[in-house]
Amino acid sequence: MSNFNKQTGSSTEKAGISSPEITNASAISQIKNKRRQQPSVEELISGILSENRTALSRAITLVESTNPEHAEKANEVIKGCLPEANKSIRIGVTGVPGVGKSTFIEAFGKHLTTFGKKVAVLAVDPSSSLSHGSILGDKTRMEELVKDENAFIRPSASGETLGGVARKTRESIILCEAAGFDTIIIETVGVGQSETAVHNMVDFFLLLKISGAGDELQGIKRGIMEMADAIVINKADGDNIKKANLAKAEFNRALHLFPSKKSSWQPKVTTCSAITKDGISEVWKTISQYFEMTHENGFFKTKRKEQNQFWMMETIEEKLKSDFYSQPEIIAELEKIKKAVQNNEISPFAAAHLLLDKYKKI
Ligand SMILES: Nc1nc2c(ncn2[C@@H]2O[C@H](COP(=O)(O)OP(=O)(O)OP(=O)(O)O)[C@@H](O)[C@H]2O)c(=O)[nH]1
Ligand SMILES: [Mg+2]
């Protein structure tokens, strides 16, 4: 008796017994359903271009997937969508937790959809792997916008490096634009490097603040002030209105001390309340002025070109790094060499060269 015939188990017990017709039919329909669940690249592209949200969501899921097969498919979809992308305005919204970003985006987004804009909201949230995605809660916080058929809200990709999340957001922007969204809003929590990443993928960068006790400039990073095209002081309602106006004056004074921007745009400071909606339409006016000006002086196009180059370089660096650190030969050596560096047995530079040479030979 051969080994094959000696096998026992449910599969061998059933060997030779033909399956009833009905099982085959249901298996076939199951397979068909499964196929239907995984649309082809062409189906996804044509779905997105005809503004089908399910296709858009599925394509973003592919972009966010860590499965290399999905990544390949996602690249094809992006390639097909690219000619239809680039036709939106991209606005970044940042601010410390609790400043009211989600509430502001809900009010601002609703304002835009009332005059026919199509708004997509994405997020770069490097902390989401820890907090299990604060923007996931936003879908319930942005109650009105979620229901709006001219809006699309996508919770952030989580559990990744900032570079990874940023790349996925960049690709999702392309997909949203191809699906007909003309205003893309990217929310990011004002911590770590995420602002810089978002600043590098948007046309207009909005810093949301709340008024404090007259020490508005304390604790605010100079870099963020420099990046901002507008500072909007939120929660200017009730007893807060007076304080918000004082804060506005203080920020205005501070901004005038900064060197002028490459865009020639003088950043604006306004106040608003995401709850009463006061000042929300002013924010749109400011942004419209910015777009008018930067289209006229050519900065808009130049900035996008520079951003494309920036992301290419970022992707190369990110890929090289992750490839380097995932090589078994490097993993095996790294800890040993780190110790040797600590003990001054080898200089940090010589150690780095040693590892890099090893990597080049792999
Ligand atoms: N009074 C007042 N409260 C506001 C305003 N905007 C937001 N809030 C409140 O501030 C709290 C935080 O608002 P969120 O919109 O969740 O803030 P966020 O910046 O998105 O917070 P994270 O996503 O956690 O970083 C909520 O309780 C809101 O109701 C406003 O204009 N006025
Ligand atoms: Mg939020």
Automatic annotation (TrEMBL):
Using the record, list the residue span of the signal peptide; answer none if the entry has no such feature.
none
Gene Ontology MF annotations:
kinase activity
Does the keyword field hold Transferase?
yes
Matching CDD domains, A to Z? Answer: MMAA-like
Which keywords describe this protein according to UniProt? Answer: Kinase, Transferase
Region Disordered: start-end pairs: 1-21
Specify residue ranges for compositional bias: Polar residues: 1-13
Cited InterPro entries? GTPase_ArgK, P-loop_NTPase
Q: Which family does it belong to?
A: Belongs to the SIMIBI class G3E GTPase family. ArgK/MeaB subfamily.
In Swiss-Prot or TrEMBL terms, this protein is called ATPase/protein kinase
Q: Which organism is it from?
A: Flavobacterium limi
Q: What taxonomic ancestry is recorded?
A: Bacteria, Pseudomonadati, Bacteroidota, Flavobacteriia, Flavobacteriales
